[in-house]
Amino acid sequence: MTEFNAFATGAEASIFRPYAFVALFVFPFIVVRKVSADEKSGAFESISQSWRSLTTLVLAQFGVLLGVFVATWVPGLIVLGVGRVRGESVRMLLVVSVLLGHLLRAALVISLAMIFAAANRPVRALILTLAFSLAMLWVAYMGQTQGGLIEQLAQLTPEGMLRAFDRGEIRLDIAYVFVIAVASNLVLAVAWMHRGLERGFRWAVTAVVLVVTSALTALAS
After folding, report:
1. pLDDT single digits (tens) 12-24
2. Is residue 213 part of a domain?
3. Which domain holds residue 113?
4. Is residue 4 a part of any domain in this protein?
5. What confidence tier does 207 reach under pLDDT thresholds 50, 70, 90?
6. What CA–CA distance (Å, rounded) separates 218 from 221?
7. How far, in Å, are 121, 174, 177, 212, 216 from residue 219 at the CA level?
8. What secondary structure letter does DSSP report for 120?
9. Long-range pairs for 162-165 at CB < 8 Å and ≥24 separation?
10. What is the pTM of this model?
């Protein structure tokens, strides 16, 4: 039976392994709290019916949250720097690949949490985001321990695709899929934050975005 290892196993990658859990289980709290706080403070009131202003706000929120995640890399980078000064071998290409994988994972979770926070109450939004994170890990676990068809299906999940970056493979096709997914999530976040739209119209926008996203991601296969 294959030993379960949801993330990277290299020496450099091991330093950054905790950041996967930070993205999956810590940042959902931060995102939901940020969006809820902005809504309670009235930040959405004056722009909630303007597509342009609301899009700018959502992109700014996303950029700040992703920037905070990147800032958490500093301790790991310091450890790598100290190791290099001491003469230890550091494979920089592997480091870049692993960090890119973490960035894509965080971007996906943050953008998804923004949708849930816009469409639901804070507690429900948090539960939905954490359920998504747990589901990704569970599928990765089942794929590595069961093999066969489950293993093949697990490779199509976000965690399964990101495993290539953990091995030092910078896969542009996978990065493309994640960028499309994140962009789609941000469009949906704007739609669900727009207070001038009927709920039925929001669901219609959601359906259209999902169809377009599916078509665009199919181009990567």
Report:
1. 677 888 888 888 8
2. yes
3. 11-218
4. no
5. very high
6. 6
7. 35, 11, 9, 11, 5
8. S
9. 162/101, 162/104, 162/105, 164/101, 165/97, 165/98, 165/100, 165/101, 165/104
10. 0.82
At 118 the pLDDT is: 82
The residue length of the chain stands at: 221
In which element (H, E) is residue 75 found?
helix 74-85
**How does pLDDT run across 46-89, given as a tens digit for each residue?**
555 667 788 888 899 899 999 999 999 998 888 888 877 777 77
- The DSSP code for 6 is S
User: Does residue 5 lie within any of the structural domains?
Assistant: no
Place of tokens 């700040």: 64
3-state SS, residue 42: coil
Tokens of 218: 């199919």
φ/ψ of residue 67, rounded to 5:
-65, -40
Give the single-character DSSP code of 3.
P
Q: What's the pLDDT score for residue 102?
A: 93
Rounded to an integer, the average pLDDT of 183-203 is 86
Split into its structural domains, the chain has a count of 1
Domain-located, residue 176: yes
| Residue 42 reports pLDDT greater than 70 | no
